[in-house]
Amino acid sequence: MGTFLDKPKTDKHNEHGCGNGLRYGVASMQGWRVEMEDAHHVRTGLGEHLNDWSFFAVFDGHAGATVSSHCADELLDCIISSEEFKESDFPQGIRTGFLKLDNRLRAKPEFACGKDKAGSTAVCALVSPNHFYIANCGDSRAVLCRSGKPAFSTRDHKPILPSEKERIQNAGGTVMIQRVNGSLAVSRALGDYEYKSVEGRGPCEQLVSPEPEVFVQDRDEENDEFLVLACDGIWDVMSNEDVCDYIRSLLLLTDDLEAITNQVIDTCLYKGSRDNMSIVLVTFPAAPKPSQEAIERDQALNKNIESLVREVVSNKLDMGFRQVLGYLGDVKIADLPPGGGLSAKRPIIESIYKELCPHRAESELDPN
């Protein structure tokens, strides 16, 4: 889980679509990890009596990609096929769906024999005409931006949380270096069956629990702007406020949601994220729209940055790229993207540096 590549893989997988009065964009990238272990599922219109519902989910695998892949394929069906969901007890139906999936996966031969030790976090949102049903199991996270600010966020399930630590210790485990038995960094996940074998305890009382926290939020058509679901590769380097501020600034420049999610991932890479990264962005009618004023302000910012790079490099031709970044970081540049900062403008800085110092650029340009 801690092995990294010499250079990050920056190719991205993208999706976009619309339906039920919302739009969505998806981006995922392997980054520095030796394997891509993330998965996701997006769908508008869930069939039969749920055509006006939508489903969005991100799954962050660890110790392999098998569990996250199964979750992407099977979680939605496990939820909407539950008796509780059919009877309109949607929160309990979501909880039952998670537990049902975890049991279903445990029975698969590769997990039953103990050979495959993979696990996965899961964060998902079912969007109905009037409500958000948001569930989280692990440290992937969902954030709702309303009236320009994060109005709701799921809670990351870390072993050091008092309630999580108590369950782990009651099941005979320990929390060391903020990890379950000194190894696993999350206290809830699907899969991870080596942590779910304590006799005499139910599935939600094990060292690692598959039980999600389920939250219900009323929709506010006039003020709901967007919903973000992302793995911890995003949240490790950007706060809820950073992500909301940054996405809002990008929505003022373009309505291309794939481009926006790509920029978020790239910016997180430049901010130092070493993990796989996946993000689902769902926008609602009240989301910011492209503004000519914002576009012109961004164009002026780009020209200013270009001018600064040309000036500093022309004055000192042997200046390394990191020195250029350091110089720009010390300059108080106006109108940098909120939440993204100078890292959001890294591609422009790189392109000018490559033009001016082609002999140094190849060896010096890396995301960190």
Automatic annotation (TrEMBL):
Q: Where in the cell is it found?
A: Cytoplasm, Cytosol; Membrane
Which cofactors are reported in the record for this sequence? Mn(2+); Mg(2+)
Q: Which residues form the PPM-type phosphatase domain?
A: 23-284
Q: Identify the PROSITE patterns for this entry.
A: PPM_1, PPM_2
A Pfam entry, by short name:
PP2C_C
Q: Which Gene3D superfamilies match?
A: Phosphatase 2C, C-terminal domain suprefamily, PPM-type phosphatase domain
Descriptive protein name: PPM-type phosphatase domain-containing protein
List the source organism.
Nezara viridula (Southern green stink bug)
